[in-house]
């Protein structure tokens, strides 16, 4: 990835984060507890929301060193212990049955092998662990979905490999994780997903 993307990401996302995304992130993360794994923590945009007293610690994986560097200040300011790891979602550096909760927000679109990442999440999280996702997905409306398909090749080049048309919800349906609740935003472009590791 080019060095410019981590530098502009927070600025580009700020209008969305100030409004609805902030509320969505806070509501989702408030459902996490115990030892939490965050996949693709990026610049640490979620870290201020880890305030739930039921959270013991957060282990955050982020493969991009420039993004991880931008997260350092948020880690220092957090009231919850946060440890950052330079690791990919497809190869997590943790033992089996380690985590009580897993959080991933706006990251599965960029993971090269999302099914492998889901396998790893199942491996390192406990049976019954809470899986909390906030993602954009391929839209159900056919015309809009075809627009996503058409834009994705260019979008991937500009936005760090982001698949604008990836259907993360459908991929999750192919795992052993049990989807409990889904909320839709912006006509189905964004979803929050609550699931349980049913291994």
UniProtKB/TrEMBL annotation:
Keyword terms of this UniProt record: Methyltransferase, Transferase
Molecular function terms in GO for this entry? S-adenosylmethionine-dependent methyltransferase activity
* UniProt-listed GO biological process terms: methylation
Task: Give the Methyltransferase type domain ranges.
Answer: 37-132
List the Pfam families hit by this protein, alphabetically: Methyltransf_11
* Family annotation (CDD domains): AdoMet_MTases (cd02440)
InterPro entries per the record? Methyltransf_11, SAM-dependent_MTases_sf, Thiol_S-MT
Q: Which domain of life is it from?
A: Bacteria
Q: What is this protein's record name?
A: SAM-dependent methyltransferase
- The organism of origin for this protein: Virgibacillus phasianinus
Organism lineage string: Bacteria, Bacillati, Bacillota, Bacilli, Bacillales
